[in-house]
Specification:
This protein is α/β, with parallel strands linked by helices. It has two domains: about 1-135, N-utilizing Substance Protein B Homolog, Chain A, CATH 1.10.940.10; about 220-420, Rossmann fold, CATH 3.40.50.150. Helices cover about 40% and strands about 15% of the residues. It has 17 helices and eleven strands. Strands 4, 5, 6, 7, 8, 9, 10 and 11 form an eight-stranded mixed sheet that branches. Helix 4 packs across helix 6, helix 5 crosses helix 6 (about 85-100) and helix 6 (about 85-100) packs parallel to helix 8. Mean pLDDT is about 95; it is low at about 1-10.
């Protein structure tokens, strides 16, 4: 009876369901290797309010963004190190994320944190948190990357880490680049390229002017660059391979290409369907396995935004800092190689291929491009925001640490090729 009464009392604690969901989210990432997106539905079931679901996601994201630093603080306040998988450590991470990153008052953190340890070491967690509040504890200016991640990213690791301190701004891609100044006047913000507008984060997208009319769509600045490499379509045929969720498909269609968008995931293609309806644009959509499918005839151009580790999206998806290792990279490298091997044979003479990945891993970018059996075409600096440079090979590599005065951009690798005429 007493246990039932305790559970009933806990159910009445405001904000507790969101914290419990945040705990499930971090566990799904760190223990099961799921993405935050994959884990979100199951972790937030039963939470009706969108604000509470968003809070759970925000807490979990900050835990993953600053995990190494939170663990260092916890270890500084314990005589005996807590195991990595101890529930007390997991709850303390949540508590520190709320206090140090979301500016939740310590008393509210305690009230919603300790109930997560019902029947467990609540006194220990309370003591550790209270000791850190009394210091008071603080975080470094930028998150500390996990050692294996910092080693992979080499000399750019420090700059990338500095860019992870805050979530990214909101980037919009305009359907008509010629209306850039008009939409700047309407929405505010700034533009780093024709057809691009950057707004502060936290904006309600659906309430912005132009959303219902399909005048623009949400797309990180770096993610908009691969489609720009193909220029104006003038009715020519292009294959958008691995197209979902479809931002590049919309760009190509708006630029006058005759687009066939292909992806293996019907669920992910639903988002493209919704955006096509909103924008009034038209494409041919196919659900197919690209390792088996092939076009009936060669095409003028191909955009292959290949499946990848997505480590370049670490600003908005900090789970990639902890899920991705050599095994995941190697599996995706093999898939990318297979897709490239098929795509190069689908071009007309003189046709162009753009290969792109939203990854910071050299194996998925530079190493893949070096093995493409087509003539390389240098990325044109005139197509890029000021401050980005093309490599000696003519490739483009972006990372979150670039354009720091403009709030950065995602990590991408882009290379362009041409079939023999």
């Amino acid at each position: 009876m007493q246990m039932l009464l305790q559970r009933a009392a806990m159910a009445d604690i405001p904000g507790l369901p969101a914290r419990r969901a945040a705990l499930r989210l971090t566990d799904a990432v760190l223990r099961r290797g799921e993405t935050l997106d994959q884990a979100a539905h199951g972790a937030t079931q039963g939470i009706r309010e969108e604000a509470d679901r968003a809070l759970a996601r925000a807490i979990a994201s900050e835990v993953l963004r600053w995990l190494v630093d939170f663990d260092a603080l916890i270890d500084s306040a314990t005589r005996k190190r807590l195991p990595d998988d101890a529930k007390a450590r997991a709850v303390l991470r949540l508590m520190l994320a709320q206090w140090l990153r979301l500016e939740t008052p310590p008393h509210a953190v305690v009230a919603t944190g300790l109930p997560l340890l019902a029947g467990g070491p609540r006194r220990l967690a309370h003591g550790v948190f209270s000791a850190l509040v009394r210091k008071p504890a603080s975080l470094p200016p930028a998150p500390t990357l996990p050692e294996n991640v910092a080693a992979r990213w080499g000399e750019r690791a420090a700059a990338i880490a500095a860019a992870l301190a805050e979530p990214p701004p909101l980037d919009l891609t305009l359907r008509d680049p010629g209306e850039t100044q008009d939409w700047l006047n309407e929405l505010g913000g700034k533009s780093l390229l024709p057809g691009h507008i950057r707004l502060q984060r936290g904006v309600s997208v659906e309430r912005l002017p132009g959303y219902n009319d399909g005048a623009w769509w949400v797309q990180d600045l770096a993610a908009s660059l691969p489609a720009r490499m193909l220029g104006s379509g003038q009715g020519r045929k292009v294959l958008d391979l691995c197209a979902a969720p479809g931002g590049k498909t919309l760009q190509l269609t708006a630029a006058g290409w005759d687009v066939t968008a292909i992806d293996a995931s019907a669920r992910r293609m639903e988002r493209l369907t919704q955006n096509l309806k909103r924008t009034g644009l038209t494409v041919e959509m196919l659900i197919a396995d690209l390792l088996e499918w092939e076009p009936a005839e060669p095409v003028d151009a191909i955009l292959l935004d290949a499946p990848c580790t997505a480590t370049g999206t670490c600003r908005r998806h900090p789970d990639v800092l902890h899920r991705i290792g050599p095994r995941q990279i190697e599996e995706l490298v093999q898939l990318q190689s297979a897709l490239l091997g098929r795509a190069v044979g689908w071009l007309k003479p003189g046709g162009r291929l753009v290969y792109a990945v939203c990854s910071l891993e050299e194996q998925e970018g530079e190493a893949q491009a070096a093995n493409v059996p087509l003539s390389a075409i240098a990325v044109q600096p005139s197509m890029l925001p000021a401050g980005l440079d093309v490599s000696p090979e003519g490739w483009l590599r972006t990372d979150p640490g670039m354009l720091p005065d403009e709030a950065g951009l995602d990590g991408f690798f882009i290379a362009c090729f041409e079939a023999a005429g």
